[in-house]
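Sequence in, structure out.
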Amino acid sequence: MRSSVDHLARFTRDQRGAATVDYVVLAAAAFAVAMASNGVVSDGMRGLAGTVDSELRREPVEDLVGITYTDEFDNGANGWIGALAGSIAGLGNVLGPIGGTGAGGLPRVTRDFDIDPNAAQATFDFDLYAMDSLDNEAGIIYIDGEEVGRLTSDKGNAVFTAATGLKARGIIVRATAVDTNVQLGGSAAYNDSLSSISITIDDPAERVTFGFGSTANEGTSDESFAIDKFHATGLMNTAI
């Protein structure tokens, strides 16, 4: 009887096999957590993949208010009036080349955007190239037919000037010189410039017309402007 009691006591104190039991419990718990989170991670990755795919295909992406439109002009100039999408040596596919648009650089390159009624702001961001032998000629940016700013280029040296009275119109325009007086493409005989333009419109109307004009006075093989990576937010589905 004594030996049986001693044997039982030793058995209850024996730790051999305890680690295996603990590992099985922990592994089961980890597996349960992984299975529970799999759906969340999968849904998030599918959503991210869909957003990236839409951006690459130039399709609208659902935004917090309205939709976002991005166009790198790989599929033409759909919806744009007054200019064609083309491939420029060194630049790739762009909206352009855009030459002179008449006296004073009238806004003959345009596109209308319908704005979501719940959007407090609409934004327009894009790259603007000034190419080749431009000699103090300007690319002029318009919103609803009124100038908001112009980029004046002298053989690769570009200066941006915002229009006056923008605050009263609820418009903020910013320009960043990305490259100036460098060879970006087009004719190898002249230098070029690249600027990044950002336009924010507070309390926009139901429809906003983006416009662009140029005072260039020679053929596009000598001097031109080009627009690329156009990005707009706060839009209605009908705007695309």
